[in-house]
Amino acid sequence: MEAETEANYLKQVDFFQGLNDEDITILMSVAKRRTFRAGEVIFHRDDPGQALYVIKEGKVKICLISPDGQEISLVVFGKGECFGELALLDGLPRSADAIALEKVECYTLQRTDFHNTIIKVPQIAIQILEVLSKRLRMTDQKVEDLIFLDVYGRVAKKLLELAESHGIQGPEGVRIDMRLTQQELASMVGASRESVNKVLGYFMDRQYLSTDRHRITLHRIADLKRRIY
After folding, report:
1. Judging by DSSP bridges, how do beta strands 51-57 and 173-176 pair with one another?
2. Which of 33, 112, 190, 196 maximizes the CB count within 10 A of its CB?
3. pLDDT tens-digit profile of 116-154?
4. What strand order describes the sheet that includes 60-65?
5. Nearest Cα residue to 24 out of 9, 14, 41
6. What's the alpha-carbon Rg for the chain, to the nearest Å?
7. Where is the Cyclic nucleotide-binding domain (predicted)?
8. What span, in angstroms and rounded, lies between the C-alpha atoms of 48 and 93?
9. Diameter of the chain by CA atoms?
10. Three-class SS of residue 59?
């Protein structure tokens, strides 16, 4: 029963959607399960890239940390998403840090197993290209946002994105289901913590959102959308 549950889960992962039962069985035969504590570093920038990670439960932050400790958060991945694939494809060291935001359960595929699986199941290569293309477009959009949007617009857009990917609908609005400090949000939008604090205060005064123990609930989605541009 557990094997069947895991197989059904892997079929929902972006990289592996559309694969048949035989292909999924090949993947499961080489995948290993790993668990990481909240706050644990999964890998550091410049580490050798030896594994692809598929998240079963929890959330992982991909970020860059400067020599003086300043952090830029690139993306947050959650259940059903993969990370760490670039180093497996090009053989170069990790390009960023990966940190567990909460307890994370995941599957890992070692580089050699990953390559062998692609050879046996070429469809995976096409799936990977589609996911990488989507992520490249997201990177282009982030650069565009930094150029054309003010801090208010960048914060509003990021909160809406997080609500879409990690939101839970409730009676009072959409709650972003992840612990999010002002500093973490600031690192996501390329702004200072003080600027983000000012923006959040502005949005709370107008009842666009509310905060509780580093959890943000969006109440007036349409108003936030209008504030982006």
Report:
1. unpaired
2. 196
3. 888 887 888 888 888 888 888 988 898 899 889 999 999
4. 41-43, 97-100, 60-65, 71-77
5. 9
6. 19
7. 15-135
8. 5
9. 57
10. coil
* Residue tagged 């960023």 (tokens): 96
Q: Tell me the pLDDT tens digit for each residue of 168-220.
A: 999 999 999 988 889 999 999 989 999 999 999 999 999 999 999 889 999 99
Q: How far is CA 190 from CA 17, 62, 64, 76, 106, in A?
A: 33, 14, 12, 15, 29
Cβ-count burial of 80 within 10 angstroms (0-12 exposed, 13-18 middle, 19+ buried)?
middle
Q: At what angle do helices 21-30 and 2-10 cross, to 10 degrees?
A: 110
Phi and psi, residue 168, nearest 5° = -125, 120
What is the pTM (predicted TM-score) of this model? 0.79
Token reading at 14: 């972006």
Which positions ≥6 away from 125 have C-beta within 8 Å?
Answer: 118
150 phi, psi to nearest 5 deg: -80, 180
Strand-pair category, 209-212 with 215-218: antiparallel
Provide the 8-state DSSP code for 179.
-
Catalogue all structural domains in the chain, each as residue range(s) with its CATH number. 1-135 (2.60.120.10), 147-226 (1.10.10.10)
Q: Is residue 162 exposed (0-12), middle (13-18) or buried (19+ Cβ within 10 Å)?
A: buried
Q: Which helix (H) or strand (E) holds 204?
A: helix 193-205
Return d(Cα 168, Cα 186) in angstroms, integer.
22
* Separation CA 95–CA 49 (nearest Å): 9
